Amino acid sequence: DKPVTIAYIQKQGDQQYFVDEAAGAKEEAKKLGNVKVNIVDVGTDSNAAISAMNVMIGQKVDGIAMVAPDQQIGPQVVDMAKQAGIPLLASDDALKSGDGQEIPFVGFDGNDMGHKVGLAAGKLYAKAGWKADETLIAAAYKPGLSACQNREEGALAGFKEAISGDMPKVVDIGTDNSTVDAQNRTGAVVTAHPNIKHWVVWGCNDESETGAVTALSNAGIPADGIIGVGLGGYLVCKDWNAGQKTGNKAALYISGRDVGSAAVRTLVNAVRDDKPLPKKTVAKTTIVTPENWKSVMGSCS
Amino acid sequence: MTTQTNESADARPKEGRARRVLNAIGVQNISLVIALILLVAFIGSQNSNFFYTSNLATIGTTVAIVGILAVVQTVVMLIGGLDISVGSQAGLTSVTSAMIFMATGSATAGIVGALVVGAAAGLFNGIVIIYGRVNAVIATLATFAAYRGLANVISNGRAQGYTGTDAVFVFLARGNVFGIPVLIWILILVAVAIQLMLHYTDIGRNIYAVGGNAVAARLAGIALNRYVLGVYVLVGVVAALAGILLTARTGSGQPTSGSQGLELQSITAAALGGCSLQGGRGTIVGTVLAVILLGVLQNGLIILNVNSFYQDIAQGALLVIAVVIQQKRAGGGGVGLPT
Amino acid sequence: MTTQTNESADARPKEGRARRVLNAIGVQNISLVIALILLVAFIGSQNSNFFYTSNLATIGTTVAIVGILAVVQTVVMLIGGLDISVGSQAGLTSVTSAMIFMATGSATAGIVGALVVGAAAGLFNGIVIIYGRVNAVIATLATFAAYRGLANVISNGRAQGYTGTDAVFVFLARGNVFGIPVLIWILILVAVAIQLMLHYTDIGRNIYAVGGNAVAARLAGIALNRYVLGVYVLVGVVAALAGILLTARTGSGQPTSGSQGLELQSITAAALGGCSLQGGRGTIVGTVLAVILLGVLQNGLIILNVNSFYQDIAQGALLVIAVVIQQKRAGGGGVGLPT
Amino acid sequence: MAASQLQDTDEAVLVLDNVSKGFSGVQALDAVTLRARAGEVLALMGENGAGKSTLLKIMSAAHAADSGRIVLDGNEVSFASPVDARRNGIRVVAQEPEIMGNLSVAENVYVGALPRNGRLVDRARLFEMARSDIERAGFSGLLDPRAYGRDLSPAQRQIVEILRALVGKPRVIAFDEPTSSLSDHEAEALFHLIGRLCEDGIAVIYVSHRMKEIFRVATRVLVLRDGRVVGERPADETDDSELVRMMVGRDLSTLFHHTSHEPGRPILSLRNLTSADVHDVSFDVHAGEVVVLAGLVGAGRTELARAIIGDLPVTGGTILVDGEEMKPTSPRDAIRAGLCLAPEERKTQALLMKRSVKDNISLAIVGQLSRWHVIRRRQEREVAARHARRLSVRTPNLDNEVSKLSGGNQQKVVLARWLARRSKLLILDEPTRGVDVGAKADIYAIIDQLAAEGAAVLVISSELPEVLGLADRIVVMQRGRVSGELGRDEASEENILGLSILEEEAA
Ligand SMILES: Nc1ncnc2c1ncn2[C@@H]1O[C@H](COP(=O)(O)OP(=O)(O)OP(=O)(O)O)[C@@H](O)[C@H]1O
Ligand SMILES: Nc1ncnc2c1ncn2[C@@H]1O[C@H](COP(=O)(O)OP(=O)(O)OP(=O)(O)O)[C@@H](O)[C@H]1O
Ligand SMILES: [Mg+2]
Ligand SMILES: [Mg+2]
Question: CDD domains this protein is in (chains B, C) (predicted)?
Fold first, then answer.
């Protein structure tokens, strides 16, 4: 087989999900044979993403997969790739070209992920039979990130869809997407709402969501009074694995590994067969619960 | 002829007890206290829930980790240094503690291991600075990146283990002693111990001397290198404590999440508390007050449901206001850049 | 009596041309050059793609934004200050430029608007420092948060607009003049202009004086306040330029992404280039060399496909090594904290 | 020669034998031998840059000698660090006191040897020890042990530096120009102290440019020139002129140039000027006149000068410049109106230590030397070179860092800066601090010449011979007030001293 070099430009490469994604990409490359994957972590820095594009185009790689730190840079990177004649694949977050065309995509639909989380939370809420005026929805996410904004909008819509009757009040908790920050900030939110009996919690990632849930239980809210739905599942599963009674009632499991390997496979196939990239490859997401997580996720590290 | 114009020089300040107490707190710190009172009054008037004991405990536990780091950052700044790597050290020790705990099943082993790693990381900082002759800011900027990388490498970038079922970790994270959360006790203990050291021991006085005038300190026979090394080791150990508390609070060892940004927060608190970047000036009381002020501010902004973007603006504005009050009270025009 | 041993007082140093050139670069900078050569040799030997012209241009365009900020950070550090808010200022002006551009359709309007906003932000920093008597670190830590908040508020936290169809922005981001990217030209222009100012004008001389000894500068009739204000306005304007370039490169106005962390990067470069945090010491040549060194390092690590966690470690290690080489070459044992 | 010197090492406590030291481009010491004997005061003399401080720094191990030996009690030693030297009883009172601003005077004195009670500092004992030290050393009333270092005047800083040397068991104490920031009163106390140290069998080394002091305290005099020993004399077998000849290499006929000229119009007129510690000060300084402000340390002369040039707020009264009222809010205003102050503390108030001699000299005139803000560099170099030569600044070249000059030469750089800025009124605060006799004579001649050219000069000086030699008129201050004015002909050491302290003794 013809040797192929793929660049995988990732945001937030130190987050567990993206670490998995990188690992998946590398495993797939090995499986395909004669494929080199060059992983570049650009944090949350759009400018670094542009620089990484420059570097990789300069290195004349055969294909680029990008998890953009901000979807707004889409037109710019699409343009750069087109000028260099290198196939570009959007990973995890969709990218559009300057004329509004979506480019080929592998990953999850951000809004849809949020929607599933909201839906799951709404169902649990309806089942619990809580009253709207005794319930507060705590949405913990990093406010400046477009991906988080998408998920948050999806979650709200999903929750509304699942319930009948009044919508509980929603409090946005601006975190830096870390557990500790979510924990610290949620502590204060509890103070501000002493009359709330029941809490629904979701977040942009597992860190935010579990941090908020921990803060609630530290504030004396019983596990039964919390419906926490994680996003990712990698932290939520720790409570379940330990058999702890927890406010984390469900999580949307997304496998970074799957996306990483799908992205590499798609790019390599297109390069080798000299065919255009498929428009959309959406990876599977599953709602996991304390009951089924083991069969879906396998293990919890 | 010996009765010159300066009889006032050795006259003890003639002042009342109240005045003496005020002096002990220091004019700068009084301004912080005033700023704190005003802030508390304002927040409390808007939302009386603020005064719940539970909320005060929330503030305390929230500031505990950054608080102990700010306290040791104060010590580093006193000797004229800076430690940018505290957050990375906390992250590194957080994963270490969790990984050792998972491997051995013993919380003690995890804690001791983390403290040893922290001491080693601090010692390494000190060695690079002293024997490599690398400026403290650059050296700790370098290890800021390096320790973070190391934490990610050993943990493969993943949160490690689960400590939520261990009594020791749970006690650290959620325990109470005499009704006061353990986290707050730890902050109090660290602050008081270091305050006592700075104020009442020759080590502490020598630290002020080293930062105040390194040449004089050296000529007076103070082993500068040993002090600098010692201070950085102290920071490493306390950063490890912070890392252990991070693990306990989040229930798992976090390589970077939760510890990034602690360097800036601890420096902000120390500087707001009156530490000078030139060394030799600063107090633990000031730093702790600043930590509390910043904690109350953040808590208040959330309680008052301020949009998180406006929180940034408010935080910036209040930081400036607190210092302006300080300066106006301290009086004096001053020349050029304020210190 | 006047015929002492000092007839040589006005004799120019008698030394060869080569020696003079070396002196002009400075011993500290020579070490940076050596470190750079070693690094380039190593990376090139591992992967010859490194030497593609396109890659060299890539390095240049990559460092351009942080480079111009490091250059002005150098000036701030020369007067003994620090500006932590440069990144936030760049973010603020990035969204401003994009929003004005989207509203008016005119790139010029967007650029001018951003520069005005940058100048205002810098002026505000200066006013807080000079008239509020707030320590420069605290003041800019405060505006670091405040300007970021402001950028998020006006943009609602979202990237703004699309500039990829505008000729001016495209020229800035991807244009070439004489085969060299516009971004690199801008870095060269800013660095040369400021170098000339520092070296050949009384303004530059006075900047060194203010940072070297503020009391002496004041007694020599230098209007300290005006200099401090002026320098912070300069930083604001250059940060705005950085913001505009960010907009041009990413194709949209970014409130925070791409500008967070620029403060630390610019300070790292300036400090590695030989700036002292105490003021009065540092050169533009040194800073630019440090910027290039860091840029090459980062590029090399990516090209050599080093895992990003190991990149952190390597970056930290190389930072330390570069400074240790510097210090060993500069000679002199020294005790206590290196400056 | 080296061998013969070795024979009498046994009677000396400390011998620096054939010591040499070079800095890049400068041979600061060339085979210098110095013997310090118990109970003796060895005066070390020489022009600025002769190598005195360097010799002391080698003694205290602040510098390492390039060659030569150090012999302590007959045994060759090599000190690893200043700490080591200190532990062996060697103390140097540095030319520039090093003070820790945020520590108390007591802590500044005892730093490194704080009295302890277990691990804790015994604060009560510390302050008591410091208090009794101050008293025993004869400085009572001059220094509060609890005052902070940052609040100390130059004289007080010097006293702290002196007290520091007395802690522990000193065997050899070297004073490097200890009196340059002390007035006669404190200096007198210091001489008593030195006498006592001798009686206790301590070997004292004393560096000063003040001839009078040398004969007051020294038993032997060692003279250096260009880093070489030019001679050693018992103090009672030599005199001023011989020492000057040895130091300068020729005779110095007159120390003071004084031509009397007709005072012109008043340039500066103070009317009831009042600021924080200065009260109701009124006097005039005319064109072509040298007025000297005399008084004891702390009399408020420096503060008055700073108030005049707008560096301290004026709370009452008026300042007239050329008959017009001036309200300076910063030194910049005053400088533009033609008033300049060369401050007393070169290190903290005047010099950019890390910059070149040239940059330091041209600091106050770069604006004038520039067109469109571009410095005319050739002209700058010429001006700097001219003034450096005029004041005999000893430096390898104009690009040398000022921190590498000897103390006296640094002082000359400060003066050069303010001479380069031709102003109507020049205020010189202790202009000859640490300057050698030869250069002093130059400076006096320059001051005289400035006056002859029509400038008004206000000199603040604590050295009475200087006051008498320079002044056309003397204004004496005491506790922030003018206590008297004396014409050149009416002035004597006695009546100046009388005006400085009279009121006090009555009180
Ligand atoms: N650190 C240094 N680097 C370079 N040259 C130095 C340094 N210290 C001193 N010198 C040079 O060594 C010579 C001797 O200086 P030293 O300070 O010993 O003179 P001094 O006799 O004490 O003069 P003064 O009376 O002015 O204090 C001078 O030419 C000085 O410029
Ligand atoms: N010995 C001292 N004790 C206390 N304060 C002092 C002393 N010496 C100076 N000061 C402070 O300085 C102020 C005025 O002193 P200033 O330095 O102006 O006097 P001076 O006559 O110039 O003395 P010097 O010769 O030391 O410069 C005093 O009001 C006081 O605040
Ligand atoms: Mg000397
Ligand atoms: Mg004075």
Answer: TM_PBP1_transp_AraH_like
